[in-house]
Design brief:
By secondary structure, the protein is an alpha+beta fold. The chain has a single domain, classed as Cytidine Deaminase, domain 2. Helix 3 links the parallel strand 4 and strand 5. The chain is globular. It binds zinc ion (ZN). The site of zinc ion has 7 residues, from helix 2 and helix 3.
Length: about 160
């Protein structure tokens, strides 16, 4: 007899950055600024990410494309790698993502790709803390309280039986 398992998924939606708390608003606006610095000559799809660290510091990343397409990297992984390399003891607590088209128009809200979801989940395991995900759009901002919820039944360190939490 099969058992149906329901995984609940709840997120918040806002219409304007002005409705957010000041920290979230700052993070969203920083991600939007970062998007305009993306290197995306092939897709014309500019993505910016801003990571809030526990200290309050913000680290940004953009997508960086490459003529050899798989060599490109997403904004989210760029920002999280930057944070890990430069602030290894300061854990990420929030990540805002914004996207723009080549003419600078807001193209969000867009959600992190599967690769980035996997990296977000790893960071949550690494620190033992949730990472809030803020998806920026012109008329809609979506907030997910725990990034790992974007990757149900995820592969993680417990599968490797290494240092399970
Ligand atoms: Zn990605």
């Amino acid at each position: 007899m099969a058992k149906a398992i329901n995984i609940p998924f709840i997120y918040e939606e806002y219409n304007r950055p002005e409705d957010l708390n000041p920290d979230d608003r700052e993070l969203i606006l920083t991600a939007r600024d970062a998007a305009l610095k993306a290197y995306a000559p092939y897709s014309g799809f500019l993505v910016g990410a801003a990571v809030r660290l526990n200290s309050g510091k913000i680290v940004v990343g953009t997508n960086v494309e490459n003529a050899a397409f798989p060599s490109g990297i997403c904004a989210e992984r760029n920002a999280l790698s930057n944070a890990s390399a430069n602030h290894p003891d300061d854990i990420p607590v929030a990540l805002a993502i914004a996207a723009a088209t080549a003419d600078g128009m807001d193209a969000g809200p867009v959600s992190p790709c599967g690769n980035c979801r996997q990296v977000i989940a790893e960071e949550e395991y690494r620190s033992g803390k949730n990472i809030r995900i803020l998806l920026s759009g012109k008329d809609k901002i979506q907030i997910i309280e725990k990034g790992g919820e974007l990757l149900p039944l995820q592969f993680n360190r417990n599968n490797l039986k290494l240092n399970p939490r």
